[in-house]
Design a protein that fits this description.
Adenine-n6-DNA-methyltransferase TaqI, Chain A, domain 2; 22 strands; alpha+beta; 4-stranded antiparallel β-sheet; 3 domains
Length: 422
Amino acid sequence: MKNEWKHIALRNACLKTSQWKPRSEPRGDFYYIDVSAVSNDIFKITSPQAVDGTTAPGRARKIVHAGDVIYATIRPALRRIALVPPEYHDHIASTAFCVVRADRKMAVPEFLYFLLLSDEINKAIADSQHGASYPAVTDKDIFKQEVSLPSLPEQKKIAAVLLKIQRAIELQEKIIQSLRDLKKSTMQHLFTHGLRGEKTKMTEIGEIPESWDVTQLGSTAEIKHGYAFKSEYFTSDGEYILLTPGNFFEEGGFCDEPEKRKYYTGIIPDGFVLGKGDLLVAMTEQKPGLLGSSLIVPGSGKYLHNQRLGLVQMRVQSKLSTGFLSHLFNTSRIRQEIALSATGMKVRHTAPRRILELSIPLPSLEEQSDIAAAIDALNSKLSAHESKESALQDLFKTTLNKLVTGEIRVTDLDIDVREVEV
């Protein structure tokens, strides 16, 4: 840390805040910010609750102003932290938040926001938590934290740099959401109208092109159960990776999280090592929306077929392509039918027999290939933007921690700080 930075308790850089008192007249467009209204990964207010202003929901609440930093005091490791935007000025927040209001003679609000997001201060606050069942900290625990503040001009530059990265992340998130919406509508159109501009007909499964047939999945494919691999041979490293429902995205596709991989070192029976291009379907709902999700195995000779997954295998001379079927599994109609066939109270699951009873549309193999390629192209764009967003998140975290500790200095850089000054 550079010597010219001020080392003070956080409370000495803040102004006092006040509790909410109900008003005699209703107030329109008035919001209450609960802890659940703040995301723990994008650090902004996402879903405040509209109230009338004559009574605060439940017990006492706190008034928040634009530029305040709200920091959740319940389970602080969740990092539910947000900078209050202008549209929520003079609204109310739960007392489960500590409201940090910058004394602008000492600190820039956006700098305090990023400071409270940093790993170092989060760890220090988390170390102050108390309570076994419901760990929490107090406002006092937060305000007593020792912080280091550069000059106001440097605080503005630091905040401006980090805000620019945040804006880039938000742009990628908007693009990703737009692509997901486009993919959803495109799939709905492709599986209803096809790609050839044909007239459509009504069938037992809904509207489809006139040249398409309707068939039962079991007439053209079969589903093989996986093997119950023994847990005593699970390790954190090895040659063979055990696939589980956790390897499926809810919307379909292969989800690979290296830190969560399960490796297997025991004896592997014949027929349970998967090959590249194999189609798997999740038959257990490990998390909401996962039941019926599909993925294409990305490589040969290292992934194992676990018991909670179904391996879809085409029959001889099948008129159904793997790529087409993998996307069909991820349509809303198929998912709903699989969900309706599921059993179990706490953990819902289905069986190969029930899945094979599904009625499915059957275009020509050529059109199946074209439909699969169109959806794959959208998936590639989506994946590219998701990779950009992930890289920006990594950049933000690294830059944040280095800037607020003085490891990287920006004093001599020409940085536009107008967004911070506004």
